[in-house]
Amino acid sequence: MTDFNSLFQIAFQSHQQGDLEKAEKLYQELLNHDPNDAQIAYLLGVLKTQQEDYLLALDWMKRSIILKPTKEAYQAMGELFQGLGHIQEAKHSFRESIKLDSSHIQSYFNLGLLFQYEDQLEQALIYYQKALQLNPNFTQVYNCLGTVYHLLARYDEAIESLQQVVRLEPC
To answer: Rounded to two decimals, what is the model's pTM?
Structure first.
């Protein structure tokens, strides 16, 4: 019988190579050995997301978080909630990710997007600016800032943000 670590390596490699059916089978086998493995639950959530089975993916992410909360699992769960239109749950997940790692840039960015979506533009600015403090070369944030500043009629700042996009990613 293959040991747990070897089986995990085969499962993970299958997953990376896009053989999702094989990876899922192996992950399930690994869970038979250790049903409390948070990493396997997380990877099954990722796999189910790739298969576009979002509700099952969400279940796996929740299970992963119950077993061992990580910023990655909260981030992934937030993105699932966001995609399903559950905005408050998405915000909660992204905030939990930040509680676990206050430098988790993607969660700040996603919170900015959610607040922008809800037309809470000043809140969106706060989260976008925090993301830029952590990574001043995050082009997508400048693009979103340009939009938010434009909506707030802060045109000079909108222009500056969009010029920064061009500086970071010239054609």
So the answer is: 0.90
